[in-house]
């Protein structure tokens, strides 16, 4: 009951911020409400299946946006994807170097803090490695900075228009359920090899395949499912503030601001160079090279009329690379230990 009450309070504050025009107010409001409850009472709400629900829901919503993707489009993106790889290495190296040298963090916390993956993947890494609470502060700062920056840099409001569609048919409902089933099934297989947040990755890829095959034509994720995902995600983020004092938050908040700022500056520098080299829009490239926050960037880019397919293809490539990299490291270490 306590967890349900906490979620209701978070939903009320988030809805209030959303209705007042705050960008992504439901997510930010649930983070704020849960962190206040945790810091004042010491109680953190539990959402046993929340992380899986977040991954599948956001994965399907993202995969549906790849309807216009084709092989010709992919070929034109290859040079930019190469720049993205260099940008990722520069972002991780520079921010990680500053955290270890400038802030005195240990290597494990520094690497987890600069991991530019989806928040769901970050949660998996945090829970499996038992990283210190200061790591989540860096990712919170990353989410907040990216949300504010992309909202300010892209003019206009995100469209909240509801797409008119026919009632969900039995066939379409079964198709959607099959996407969910396959995402969970294949995701559990990826868990065996140590891939973090596998359900989001499988949901994106499977949904994209179904969309290109025409099996999900006209299907749209209901608003309530995305709002619930934002609420649960905010509650899980806010619950990580348990045991964090205001002094620690202020101290690590400054460190987080510096490290995230470095990553965003690196992304902007690479976007500027790649924009001149490839003849592309630098703002679009900057969003494509952002260190994470795919949900925020996708929504804002779509509402701003930007090339969503181009941006999300880069983020999907980044997620594939970063989601499988930890699994490969684990397998290499196991192989060395077995020798």
Automatic annotation (TrEMBL):
One BP annotation, GO: regulation of gene expression
InterPro entries, alphabetized: AbrB_dup, AbrB_fam
Keyword annotations: Membrane, Transmembrane, Transmembrane helix
GO-annotated cellular components: membrane
Annotated organism of origin: Pseudomonas koreensis
Membrane spanning stretches: 49-66, 78-98, 110-126, 138-158, 170-191, 198-218, 224-243, 255-274, 286-312
Lineage of the species this protein comes from: Bacteria, Pseudomonadati, Pseudomonadota, Gammaproteobacteria, Pseudomonadales
Signal peptide (from-to): none
Protein name: AbrB family transcriptional regulator
Pfam families on file: AbrB
């Amino acid at each position: 009951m306590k967890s349900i009450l906490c979620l209701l309070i978070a939903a009320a504050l988030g809805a209030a911020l959303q209705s007042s025009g705050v960008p992504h107010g439901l997510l930010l409001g649930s983070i704020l409400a849960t962190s206040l409850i945790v810091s004042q009472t010491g109680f953190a709400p539990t959402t046993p299946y929340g992380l899986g629900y977040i991954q599948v829901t956001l994965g399907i919503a993202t995969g549906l946006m790849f309807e216009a993707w084709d092989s010709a489009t992919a070929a034109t993106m290859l040079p930019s994807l190469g720049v993205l790889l260099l940008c990722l290495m520069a972002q991780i190296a520079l921010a990680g170097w500053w955290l270890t040298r400038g802030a005195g963090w240990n290597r494990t916390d520094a690497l987890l803090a600069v991991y530019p993956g989806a928040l769901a993947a970050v949660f998996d890494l945090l829970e499996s490695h038992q990283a210190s609470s200061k790591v989540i502060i860096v990712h919170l700062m990353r989410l907040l900075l990216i949300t504010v920056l992309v909202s300010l840099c892209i003019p206009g409001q995100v469209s909240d228009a509801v797409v008119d569609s026919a009632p969900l048919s039995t066939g379409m409902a079964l198709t959607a359920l099959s996407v969910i089933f396959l995402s969970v099934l294949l995701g559990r297989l990826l868990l065996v090899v140590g891939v973090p947040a596998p359900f989001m990755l499988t949901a994106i890829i499977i949904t994209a395949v179904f969309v290109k095959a025409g099996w999900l034509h006209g299907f749209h994720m209901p608003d309530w499912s995305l709002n619930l995902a934002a609420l649960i995600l905010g509650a899980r983020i806010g619950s990580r503030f348990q045991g964090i004092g205001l002094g620690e938050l202020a101290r690590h908040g400054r460190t987080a601001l510096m490290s995230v700022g470095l990553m965003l500056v690196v992304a902007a520098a690479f976007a500027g160079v790649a924009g001149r080299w490839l003849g592309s829009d630098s703002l679009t490239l900057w969003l494509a090279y952002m260190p994470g926050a795919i949900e925020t960037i996708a929504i804002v880019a779509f509402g701003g009329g930007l090339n969503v397919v181009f941006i999300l293809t880069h983020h999907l490539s980044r997620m594939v690379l970063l989601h499988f990299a930890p699994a490969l490291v684990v397998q290499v270490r196991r192989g060395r230990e077995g020798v």
